[in-house]
Amino acid sequence: MRRRFALLRYAPLLRRCFLLLAAAAAAFDARAALEAATAADAWLSNGTAPATWSITREAQLEHFQLLSEGTAKSVRAATFKRRRVIVKSDRSSAHVHAFRGGKADAAAASVAAMHRSELRAELVYLEYLRGLPGVPDLLGGWVDGAGVTYVVEDAGTPIHVVHHDSRMKDVNKYMMLARRRPLGVARAILDCFRSFSEIGGFFLDDFAPHQFAFSGAPGSPRPPRLYLVDGPKALAGRSPVSDLIAAMPKPHALDARERACESDDDCPGTSRQHCCCCPHKESTGVMAAECAGRRRLVHHNEHTACADGSRGSPESKGLCNPRKRCVPLSSRTHSFDVGAKAWLLPFLADSADRGKRPRTATFLRHLAANMSYVGPWRRASFSDAIAMLDAFNRSLDGGEAA
Ligand SMILES: Nc1ncnc2c1ncn2[C@@H]1O[C@H](COP(=O)(O)OP(=O)(O)O)[C@@H](O)[C@H]1O
Ligand SMILES: [Mg+2]
Asked: Is it the case that residue 288 has pLDDT exceeding 60?
């Protein structure tokens, strides 16, 4: 009861924050964003770089250093005018070489096009949401014999370590920042998710700490920032940009339509590292064996993404509601994630405790609970959560100390 009265005290502030956030959301021009994203995607075929790009040639960069090599792209750090930038190159031509042995070129090209879809979807995400908090600035790119390369701002330190990166020691930075500025980090997380998920209509099912990078220091006057550095998927039918992505040779999109079902098995779930479950549909490989044997999840990503009691929402496991309709994935699915993944809000609440901020810890647990109700319609949206956080921060004497 007392807690409810405490929240009522913030009502006028909450209203003001809601209005401000509504104005910010209105400022996002989806039509102009779609035009820009379409132009960036067309660059791959017509070679015309958008006017906003300041890098169009490899020769503009120096001091390359390999960070990681995934299936779709290799990632390097470099410098541009002495500033560190991140360079991502398409690896689809490598796949073409591997595939070619005796096959027709047309088939090889179609394999390359499939792999390139992932990269195209990331370009579309970056250009569609350009300028929003938590979205790395796309600085440019070029196409040469080796394939497509694009360059983004260095978003900082991954929440978790990245292979080949000499900054292994930075793994503790997130911990230190969270302890000193739990509300600042929470705000950065909410801003980032609000941008890509609530405004953009994207969804991250490759859900792991290393997909996010952060910047900020405990004593800095600048607020901490969190960025989603890897390209998320589109929720089909949920935003104007999803059609563009859904039309690619391998759509980087997830099904989020309402549909009829008899049981949970009829409803699409997400990946294991997102739902923190053994999806009922998964049937092959090591993962299935692990699930069958109820063994601990050992895969690096899943281990860190789902460790320490992290939970996924009911609909991310595939959920048929009593009216025999699948509960669709949505931005509220990510509300649940932020409230229930151990490395997001619960971690910040524990960090606030460790930093001797009991009121902040209580508030963050309360916020996490509001974001992770079983029913998606009851969960706080990211805009709601930001308004609550800002109101709470203002209620502290002088706000959160840096
Ligand atoms: N803009 C960026 N700023 C800082 N680090 C980044 C950035 N982009 C990628 N990285 C680092 O490189 C790693 C791999 O990049 P990512 O785009 O996720 O490739 P992949 O698709 O192979 O997973 C990330 O986990 C992150 O640590
Ligand atoms: Mg990644």
From this structure: no
Q: Which protein residue's CA is at the shortest distance from atom 16 of ligand 1?
A: 230
71 C-alpha to ligand 1 centroid (Å): 13
125 compared with 297, residue with greater pLDDT: 125
Strand partners, 233: 203
Q: Which ligand is nearest to the CA of 158?
A: 1
- Residue-wise pLDDT for 180-195, tens only, equals 999 999 999 999 999 9
Cα–Cα distance, 13 to 22 (Å, whole number): 14
Q: Give the confidence band of 300 by pLDDT, cuts at 50, 70, 90.
A: very low
Contact 258, 266 (CB under 8 A): no
Task: Answer whether 70 contacts ligand 1 (Cβ < 6 A).
Answer: yes
Name the band, by pLDDT with cuts 50, 70 and 90, for residue 262: very high
Q: Are strands 225-228 and 233-235 parallel, antiparallel or unpaired?
A: unpaired
Beta-carbon contacts of 326 under 8 Å, excluding residues fewer than 6 positions away, are: 258, 259, 260, 261, 266, 267, 268, 315, 318, 319, 320
Q: Give residue-wise pLDDT tens across range 349-380.
A: 999 999 999 999 999 999 999 999 999 999 99
Q: Letter for the amino acid at 301?
A: N
Residue 387 has pLDDT above 90, yes or no: yes
The Cα–Cα gap between 224 and 227 comes to: 10
Residue 302 has pLDDT above 70, yes or no: no
How far lies 55's CA from each of 21, 40, 46, 139, 230, in Å? 33, 14, 17, 6, 20
- 297 CB under 6 A from ligand 1? no
Nearest-angstrom CA–CA distance, 317 and 44: 36
8 A C-beta contact, residue 319 and residue 330 = no
Q: Is 357 in the pocket of ligand 1 (CB under 6 A)?
A: no
DSSP 199: I
